[in-house]
């Protein structure tokens, strides 16, 4: 148990460092302006048009780092700093979210699998931790409850794992388009790639952390008396 706690602590520290690193890079690349005053909104509109996507809207949403693509409403949702931002960070994030729209338009298999799990995650996300807690407390009386919680948590872990190739592929699509369209040059392209690389690290740590937690709950279940 002590060994697991040390490993879990290491995951928590690594996750914090990566999150800090990503935010630090976003702040750093927010200070590097793009030519011709191009903004995140401009990038999204242009990338969608050049890829023949006409049924996706670009929207402004509040919050920090709340940028996302919603396949249900077919909208690119950009935070204020990205939507109005005239810097390499805004360009990279905006192009990345458009990469998801390209995946959707091309029926990218990993995105389809991820989208299929979203309804399940919406239903179970508010209950998983409570079920696991109750299952641990009642492990010797009603072990089936913890097993049920583990199955639910396994679906969340699967969601995290499927998210990895979706995010990596979207960043690849974004970087290819930014280079081919001439939006980025040799120097700014390296910055865009670095920003998206650190964003991918956050998803990697989320997946690894979820796997570690799943193993922890399974160890508790397997070691019950």
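-> sequence recovered:
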């Amino acid at each position: 148990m002590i060994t697991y706690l040390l490993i879990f602590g290491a995951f928590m520290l690594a996750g914090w460092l990566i999150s800090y690193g990503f935010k630090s890079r976003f702040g750093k690349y927010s200070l590097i302006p793009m030519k011709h005053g191009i903004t995140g909104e401009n990038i999204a509109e242009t990338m969608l048009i050049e890829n023949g996507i006409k049924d996706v809207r670009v929207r402004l949403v509040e919050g920090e780092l709340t940028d996302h693509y919603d396949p249900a409403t077919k909208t690119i949702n950009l935070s204020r700093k990205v939507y109005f931002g005239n810097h390499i960070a805004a360009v990279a994030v905006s192009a990345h979210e458009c990469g998801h729209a390209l995946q959707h338009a091309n029926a990218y298999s990993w995105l389809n699998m991820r989208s299929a799990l979203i309804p399940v995650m919406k239903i179970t996300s508010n209950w998983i931790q409570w079920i696991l807690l109750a299952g641990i407390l009642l492990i010797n009386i009603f072990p089936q409850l913890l097993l049920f919680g583990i199955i639910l948590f396994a679906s969340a872990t699967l969601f995290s794992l499927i998210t990895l190739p979706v995010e990596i592929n979207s960043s690849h699509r974004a970087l290819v388009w930014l280079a081919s369209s001439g939006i980025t040059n040799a120097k700014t392209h390296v910055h865009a790639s670095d920003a998206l690389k650190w964003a991918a690290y956050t998803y990697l740590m989320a997946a690894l952390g979820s796997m570690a937690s799943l193993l922890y709950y399974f160890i508790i279940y397997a070691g019950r008396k």
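Residues 143-180 form the longest helix (38 residues).
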